[in-house]
């Protein structure tokens, strides 16, 4: 008999934790190569916009998926 009372599959992974893990690996790699110079502020702004679009699309797709269940 199972003692799991949460009803979640043990293999389920949180998408947020996956993203944070990838970011942590990228930061660790950045530090391992000797902390190269950062890009100009203009490029960082576009990267922030692209990141916001990706996060927004992920939120829309995961919300649409969970409403079908």
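Sequence proposed for the structure above (69 residues):
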């Amino acid at each position: 008999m199972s003692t799991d009372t949460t009803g979640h599959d043990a293999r389920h992974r949180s998408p947020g934790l996956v993203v944070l893990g990838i970011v942590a690996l990228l930061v660790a790699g950045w530090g391992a190569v000797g902390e190269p110079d950062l890009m100009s502020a203009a490029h960082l702004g576009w990267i922030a916009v692209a990141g916001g679009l990706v996060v927004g699309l992920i939120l829309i797709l995961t919300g649409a998926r969970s409403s079908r269940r």
